Amino acid sequence: MLKLNDLGFSRDIITETIVTTYNFDNTPNAAPMGTTLLNSQMLILRPYVVSNTFANLKARGVAVINVTEDPWLYYSTAFKEEACGKLHGTFRKASVVNAPVIKSADAWVEVVVGRIVTPAADRAEVTCKALRIHARKKVPQAYCRAVGATIEAIVHATRVKAYLEKGADEEVSKLMEKIKYNRDVVNHVAANSQYAHIMENLARLIELWRKNRESLC
Ligand SMILES: Cc1cc2nc3c(=O)[nH]c(=O)nc-3n(C[C@H](O)[C@H](O)[C@H](O)COP(=O)(O)O)c2cc1C
After folding, report:
1. Closest of 159, 66, 77 to residue 106, by C-alpha
2. Of all atoms in ligand 1, which is nearest to the CA of residue 16?
3. Which of 31, 65, 145, 155 is most buried, with most CB under 10 Å away?
4. 107 lines ligand 1 (CB under 6 A)
5. What is the ipTM of this complex?
6. Sequence ranges of the domains in the chain
7. Structural class in CATH, domain 4-69+83-135
């Protein structure tokens, strides 16, 4: 039988996943979230308290934790306004919990929410118990640096958005440097690829956020 650590979850490591839940209106919601192993049956999520995922975890008490390395899924679920309906058809219902699953995920864990604590004002700690673990057979893929670099840039971009809203210009500059480094990696190993396309979209989005902020000042 599959165990959580077979999927790469570990006590001392933050692994990146996409958490899927149903919204109040029963539409599917998906968001990238870091996940850590607590013990052989439990995982910990740390959602920001303002996130839809946190509201859904509290209200529904169940979720699916999807395992994927697909940068497009990270991009389109972190910046849902960019997906423009392209997420339609991405989900189906899980087998034992009332939550959606990403159909193309490499593996997924159906979970029930346990303890919720808020050690920091802005971020919660949500303990999830695995009820069922599924994994697909997958042909090994040769490692491409652009995959990690693109996902890394997406993480930084989610923070750029938050810091721009707070007017924290120094933090924004530091993150932009990191995004540039990752964009250079992508352009070096995978120019004209789907990864380069995501990086272009990120640059366009950040420009848009900057303009919106300037128009508010
Ligand atoms: C790889 C990756 C990991 C992330 N990890 C977290 C996390 O652990 N907690 C969190 O609140 N947001 C995290 N984020 C940001 C959220 O996914 C992002 O803010 C998202 O828009 C929240 O969507 P929601 O409001 O539908 O929950 C992460 C983003 C990426 C790209």
Report:
1. 66
2. 1
3. 65
4. no
5. 0.99
6. 4-69+83-135, 145-216
7. mainly beta
